[in-house]
Amino acid sequence: MSIKIGIPRGLLYYEYSPMWISFFNELGTDVIISPKTNKKILNDGTISTVEDACIPVKLYNGHVINLQKKVDYLFVPRIMGVYKNEYICPKFCGLPEMVKYSVKDLPKMINTKIDLMKKDKLKEAMMEIGSFITKDKKKIIKAYHSAQDNYLTHKKNQKNKWSGSNKNILLMGHPYVLDDDYLNMNIKNKLLDEGYQFITPDMIDEEIINEYALKYHGKLFWLFFRQMIGACLYMMEKNVVDGVIYISSFGCGIDSVVAETVERKIRRESDIPFMLLIIDEHSGEAGFNTRLEAFIDMLKWRNQNENHLSTHGNYVYSH
Amino acid sequence: MKITFPHMGTTFIPIKMILDELNIEVILPPKSNKRALELGVKCSPEAICVPFKIITGNILEGIEKGADTVFMLTGCGPCRFGIFHALQREIIHDMGHDVEFLTADRFSNYEGLREFSQRLKEASPQNSYIKIIRTIKKGLKVLDEVDTLYELTNKLRPRELNKGEVDYIWAQFENDIRTSYGYKEVMHVIKKYHLQLKEIEVDYKKPCLKVAIVGEIYTILENYINLNIERKLGNMGIEAIRTTSASEFVREQLDFIPFMRSQKKKIYKAASKYLDIPIGGHAINSIGNIMRAVKNDYDGVIHLLPFTCMPEIVVQSILPTIEKEQNIPIMTLVLDEMTGEGGYITRLEAFVDLIQKRREMKNEGKSFSWY
User: Fold this and answer.
1) Which of A50, A89, A268 sits opposite B310 (nearest CB)?
2) pLDDT by residue (tens digit) across B183-194?
3) Model pLDDT for residues B292-313, shown as the tens digit of each residue
4) B45–A91: do the CB atoms touch at under 8 Å?
5) ipTM, 2 decimals?
6) CB pairs below 8 Å between A and B: how many?
7) Closest by alpha carbon to A86, among A218, A226, A202?
8) What interhelical angle do B283-295 and B264-271 show, nearest 10?
9) First-to-final CA distance of chain B
10) Are A87 and B79 in contact (CB under 8 A)?
11) Which residue from A50, A102, A260 is facing B45, i.e. has the nearest CB?
12) What are phi and psi of B24, to 5 degrees?
């Protein structure tokens, strides 16, 4: 019987799963990933977590609950930061504690600290994670290298998926919101149905993002802040998007700053329509759809009416 | 140049003193109040924490009074505080105020300290660096003295014989200190009120229940936003012990300097059973201070945090376990811009009733488990 490792499908799973899965597979373990988010997972998570936590964290606990009886080890890494001098969010740093004290009767937890703010710490962290499974150091190093290769190819494939058609919407938000179709109410398909292509910040090259993020006046010490500001400024300059939709989860500390900054930048320096959609554990879709439809209708009218008449009687460009 | 800066409890005293000593004109915004909060709420992002909103209100009130420069600390931690200045600059510029921002990084290394003195030098070119550093040192002294004075009021309040005397003297002190200018005058005022407080008639033998106040630093220090929790507890006959103070906060930042001593290591050690790594903000301090309160046999803990505070939410999810395992009542109060006091007082009174009952039973030798 090989060891079963459980990886909850939440938070940074969406970013790093290719690396983690191939690492654990290479070491000869069974990797069990929780199923895609559904109503039960969301409910379990909401009940077990403190009220004030944001919805992605609640959902993560739901995924943990789903896995808890099926696995020998739970993989809940404590990710402090993945780039130099950049944090993610305090909730990520305290994630193992949040899980440990909210969910009862957990299997053993692999909660290695992954702090890449200092150079070459990833290898050390992976060695520690591997030591839970095997004592054979050579095997771990081999698994680490193949995991990294796998991750880099995945990243490469992810970039430039966007075909550059003429109807684009920039979809902003954290990857764990944009990639979880239950959480974002399937917004990507809804946009495609309306004939719009979506662009997310991870489709844009890291180098371009960094270049544009430098133009922001202020210290960017959050990973997602830099990515989103960079993506926003790049898209504003390229002027290829018809609209910007920002999906934020209620109570997200980082979004409260980033969404505001992005909105102010867009409204001040361009005439691209912007909409902020806030999601929480209420899963009624009607209100969400209404707003999305209204936004898309508005975009279509803007395209059709050459003189850009807005619906309430003023010129859109009257300011 | 007319400088204004936001409030955080009594920290305005040393900051104003430093700027006064360096001959920089200071526009002190009114104490945090309802109007400042409303002004701030109107222009701030909806989901940001209440410290941001009220600080923005302070700055706006300062600008109204004629300030053309805002002094603001920054920082670079996972907590949002580090980004306050950038967002505030955008908001205030969008509102049409043409003001400059004078920012300084936190002082966790020599670089930070140098930057701070450089900013002060820019604001007052006529002063030498030696004078600036001396003035900063004086500022630290004032900060310590003010905190000592404040802690004394918390100790005296539940034990005073004529109710309301401490509050009266403290109000007088705040009035006097706002108008005093420079180091000498400030120190004189502090000394004067220290003597006055010492002369109050107090029943030192009266046994008082002890409650530790832990949590996010701004909500602990700013009495407007925590609805004067220490005063309320004090007047109910409970000794409120503030686990964090501005001087302790500064000492924690500065303890890379050889002669600086802070409680940081002890607090981290106390917290290590539940959280063994600083995750930003004051999360680890909150846990550590609760564990210290348990060790010192306090009767209860009140945990304060602003709504949507990221580090304290992690703490919040650990609290139920601590409460159970360490057998100590902990009440969490989440603070936001709703300043209705009714519900707040009800909860406070219920908590006080509980810890009183618990103490009585403990004294009678019966065990009264919190669970």
Assistant:
1) A89
2) 999 999 999 999
3) 999 999 999 999 999 888 888 8
4) no
5) 0.83
6) 115
7) A226
8) 80
9) 59
10) no
11) A260
12) -100, 135
